[in-house]
Amino acid sequence: MAATSQKLEITVISAENLQLDRKPIKKNASATVRAENDSQFLTTDMDTEGGAYPKWNEKLVLDLPMQARSLTVEVQCKTSYGVRTIGTAKIPVSDFVGGFVPEGYLHFLSYRLRDRRGERNGIVNISVRMKVPELKACATTSSHSSMGFPVGDSSFGVGGVATGIPVWCGAYPRNY
């Protein structure tokens, strides 16, 4: 059975320079995270003291559908008129999935927030990590389970196992 989603661990760290009607907000900011076209969303607690520079440092675990191409982070502020959206950032999944980084790599990212008119309105700082399923360890009785070969002379207190990964460069010496 193929998996339809992956677990995404996203920590909403903080935001900077948040404004509402061109004035810095005073308090009561929160952030909401959701996957592209998904009704599931997670929200941080409200920062009641940070003003235009709120800090949440809150870890949220979201199910990210395999076909999702982006995440949305939305920062809101509670006012006397209700909850108002300060700004939204659309984050491409390709910014933290694939490429040359190992699975489970922790990415620290910052994105520009845009208000409902598309104008710049602050920055949101997050960290993102794809949760890697834990592998079950298997017991081996063979002493040759590690890759490498002995190195050094143990009589001098130096020794160990050298390991390496072959790398092909594509540049070979020319034969003249």
UniProtKB/TrEMBL annotation:
<feature type="domain" description="C2">
    <location>
        <begin position="1"/>
        <end position="106"/>
    </location>
</feature>
<dbReference type="InterPro" id="IPR044750">
    <property type="entry name" value="C2_SRC2/BAP"/>
</dbReference>
<dbReference type="InterPro" id="IPR000008">
    <property type="entry name" value="C2_dom"/>
</dbReference>
<dbReference type="GO" id="GO:0006952">
    <property type="term" value="P:defense response"/>
</dbReference>
<dbReference type="Pfam" id="PF00168">
    <property type="entry name" value="C2"/>
</dbReference>
<dbReference type="InterPro" id="IPR035892">
    <property type="entry name" value="C2_domain_sf"/>
</dbReference>
<protein>
    <recommendedName>
        <fullName>C2 domain-containing protein</fullName>
    </recommendedName>
</protein>
